Amino acid sequence: MSAAEGPLVVGVDSSTQSTKVLVVDASTGQVVAAGQAPHTVSSGAGRESDPRQWWDALCEALHQCGEAAHEAAAVSIGGQQHGLVTLDAHGDPVRPALLWNDVRSAPQARRLVEELGGSKIWAERTGSVPGPSFTVTKWAWLAEHEPEAVRATRAVRLPHDYLTERLTGKGTTDRGDASGTGWWASATESYDEEILALAGLDPALLPRVVRPGEVAGTVRDAHDLPFSKGTLVAPGTGDNAAAALGLGLRPGTAVLSLGTSGTVYAVSKRRPTDPTGTVAGFADAHGDWLPLACTLNCTLAVDRIATLLGLDREAVESGAEVTLLPYLDGERTPDLPHASGLLHGLRHDTTAGQLLQAAYDGAVHSLLGALDLVLDADADRTAPLLLIGGGARGTAWQQTVRRLSGRPVQVPEARELVALGAAAQAAGLLTGEDPASVARRWDTTRGPVLEAVERDETTLARISGVLSDAAPLLEREPDRH
């Protein structure tokens, strides 16, 4: 037996690029074993992956954990959101999964919004206005472009659903991941038959939505995994909801996640309904809500600017009045899908380091603008911001967030928060606790708190002014001819 105080649980993070597995002591939160295996994603116009490689990666990562995985009493899957998995009568993929970042369904998204009666109705019904990330738009794209695949489909799943079903043999999902499909109505917490009819999707193809805290099933004895037969399987959830569990979020606590794209979110007791579509009104994994906004340009865009300047990403300098909007991939928040990067205020004495700092400023300005839309009016806007993701340990990111927010910043030491959140959900099955309470008992947000500094209102106002003045340029559609 492992040197653990309590039962062991397994938390899984099946992301776009890899599967990560943690075996965790349910009593203390100590990670006793870990494994990881990569995925591949297609390049070109679409972003697709064969779901079977997610299963192979899960098996490989679990085997890396050795005997500890065999001793686990419960397991939960956290997975990338929105992906469309189509299965045939034998449970095999009809075609590769369409991933969240496959945006070929943008025309179908616009059509669906119009056909239901506009953005306001979508927000009131589902909590969100579907863009091309949402699963419902991907199904509509598939029906239009590959009708033979639709005819062969006998089950429709999300990525985490697919893995959970291969563990249990039962088709299930949870409210957190279901809320990112576009066909789950947050107002009634059920599948929306009118939207399903609009998209041409038979509700019989969808998984059962299990309740928070409910056992989704047990590990069946039909595959070569290092689990004991009868190991409990939790509902699982989408990656952002899993990370929220991993942080043990209480309502009103703000999270800034610095990755390739940036996300900001907070748990709320109020059901979000933003008709502009800026805030996605997701459900969380334990009965509340998880309003979330996303910016497309974050660490990858700033790193690209550093590379162009020939600088290390930390080589920033202050003192300039230059503005750089790093909208290298268009932008989602603010809603400028056709924008490109914009530089204003360049002088003879502007240094490369000052340009790099301006890129950080531009990215964080977008994130903080999104955060203002996510937080409830009664949220404590002086409490520490939780900074997570790949950029969270970068000094330049930390200092820029502090300076432009005027708030203290806390950087949790825990790194694999999606897998930890899944592990907390698995632990909740054993102890009867709310998974967020489990994570708080594990002290997952433990880490340094950087004190607040005076908010840099001058820089914020300058960026807002340039953004406003440059609107005609940033909104202009590119000439395709």
From TrEMBL:
<dbReference type="Pfam" id="PF02782">
    <property type="entry name" value="FGGY_C"/>
</dbReference>
<dbReference type="InterPro" id="IPR000577">
    <property type="entry name" value="Carb_kinase_FGGY"/>
</dbReference>
<protein>
    <recommendedName>
        <fullName>Xylulose kinase</fullName>
        <ecNumber>2.7.1.17</ecNumber>
    </recommendedName>
</protein>
<dbReference type="InterPro" id="IPR043129">
    <property type="entry name" value="ATPase_NBD"/>
</dbReference>
<feature type="site" description="Important for activity">
    <location>
        <position position="13"/>
    </location>
</feature>
<comment type="function">
    <text>Catalyzes the phosphorylation of D-xylulose to D-xylulose 5-phosphate.</text>
</comment>
<dbReference type="InterPro" id="IPR018485">
    <property type="entry name" value="FGGY_C"/>
</dbReference>
<feature type="domain" description="Carbohydrate kinase FGGY C-terminal">
    <location>
        <begin position="308"/>
        <end position="427"/>
    </location>
</feature>
<feature type="binding site">
    <location>
        <begin position="81"/>
        <end position="82"/>
    </location>
    <ligand>
        <name>substrate</name>
    </ligand>
</feature>
<dbReference type="InterPro" id="IPR050406">
    <property type="entry name" value="FGGY_Carb_Kinase"/>
</dbReference>
<keyword id="KW-0067">ATP-binding</keyword>
<keyword id="KW-0547">Nucleotide-binding</keyword>
<dbReference type="GO" id="GO:0004856">
    <property type="term" value="F:D-xylulokinase activity"/>
</dbReference>
<keyword id="KW-0859">Xylose metabolism</keyword>
<keyword id="KW-0808">Transferase</keyword>
<feature type="active site" description="Proton acceptor">
    <location>
        <position position="239"/>
    </location>
</feature>
<dbReference type="InterPro" id="IPR018483">
    <property type="entry name" value="Carb_kinase_FGGY_CS"/>
</dbReference>
<feature type="domain" description="Carbohydrate kinase FGGY N-terminal">
    <location>
        <begin position="9"/>
        <end position="246"/>
    </location>
</feature>
<comment type="similarity">
    <text>Belongs to the FGGY kinase family.</text>
</comment>
<dbReference type="InterPro" id="IPR018484">
    <property type="entry name" value="FGGY_N"/>
</dbReference>
<dbReference type="Pfam" id="PF00370">
    <property type="entry name" value="FGGY_N"/>
</dbReference>
<keyword id="KW-0418">Kinase</keyword>
<dbReference type="InterPro" id="IPR006000">
    <property type="entry name" value="Xylulokinase"/>
</dbReference>
<keyword id="KW-0119">Carbohydrate metabolism</keyword>
